[in-house]
Amino acid sequence: MDAFVVQKNKVQKNKTIAPPPDIPEPPIPDWSAMQLADTWPDALDLKSFRGWKELLRALFGKRKTVQPPINLPLQLPKYIFQEFHNLPNGNYSRRFSRGYITGFDLSMLGHMQRARENIARHFNGCQRVLDIGTAGGRTAAAIKARGVERVWGMDPSPYLLAHAASDYPEIDFFPGIAEKIPFADAQLDGISICFVFHEMPPRYIRRALQECRRVLKPGGVLVVAEPSPRQLEPLRWRELLQRAGWSRLYFKALAHHVYEPFLKSWHRIDKADLFEKAGFEKMISQPGMPVNTWALQAPH
Ligand SMILES: C[S@@+](CC[C@H](N)C(=O)[O-])C[C@H]1O[C@@H](n2cnc3c(N)ncnc32)[C@H](O)[C@@H]1O
């Protein structure tokens, strides 16, 4: 069976999914019929000492590049193939993708759910919203729960998307990247992008913002949420006497431990300048700890 079976437009194995320009919506794969190829962590024999040795080496040893499955249906930029978050083969394995989705929320101590609900509030009254870098689809689900009629979730990892599609059948999930959004111009009322830009090199972020601007209708809403730079600030001993101080210590340790190659370059960017140069207006900035959120609008 082909690794990717697409309902609306047939897509062949190993071919980039790029809808023809006259198609305003991306094709949605039939995730329940899809068989995703094993990658090396899936093939590890964890009943053997050798299997565990390889796994531990991946977790704590020298960092390797992700080995994408040969039938990945997208051409992806090289930066995506890093073992983000110290995960063996990053987001590209059947074995670790479910654990990553739950582990991300657990490691954020409940803050992500609150951040997603805050993101979703900005889409009140919207009918068509895309969640970029959706991973397990939890932000997309929060937006759908606000009553948005049509919600899509997009991510480069089919392993994450397969879980998202089985957890949230009311949402349409498809593979794709922020730099090349497979919608025609001015198709969407809203776009969310939650904890994705800090995983991208700056020039790709600028490209992604141009794409968001292109596919949003005039007056459309873009909501961006990313880690707070306060995670990396030095902490005074006095602050540790307060409860918030311990939580900051935890997030600081987390930020230092988890491999995020582009986090510092994201924090160095002047956000007001970035969003303005991409053509967005009306910036609402909601700084928080551990999540910063911006709500922007495409000009009318
Ligand atoms: C930290 S996770 C996002 C979590 C998710 N938004 C949520 O709310 O649970 C980052 C995601 O961004 C995706 N990603 C990385 N580069 C991307 C890009 N260029 N375009 C779209 N998604 C990307 C990764 O595959 C990963 O699933």
Quick recap of the structure?
34% of the residues lie in helices and 16% in strands. The protein has 300 residues and is an alpha/beta fold. It is globular and about 60 Å long.
Q: Give every kind of bound small molecule, once each.
A: S-adenosylmethionine
Q: Can you tell me the CATH class of the largest domain?
A: Alpha Beta
CATH architecture of the largest domain: 3-Layer(aba) Sandwich
**What's the count of strands?**
7
Number of discrete helical segments: 10
In CATH, the homologous superfamily of the largest domain goes by the name Vaccinia Virus protein VP39
Proportion of residues in helical segments: 25-40%
End-to-end C-alpha gap: 46 Å
Order of helices and strands: HHHHEHEHEEHEHHHEE
CATH domain topology of the largest domain: Rossmann fold
Tell me about the largest β-sheet: 7 strands, mixed
Arrangement of strands in the largest sheet: 3-2-1-4-5-7-6
- Using the alpha-carbon principal axes, give the shape: globular
Uncertain stretches of 5 or more adjacent residues: 1-16
Label the structural class: alpha/beta
Radius of gyration (Å)? 19 Å
Strand content: 15-25%
**What is the mean pLDDT?**
87
Number of domains: 2
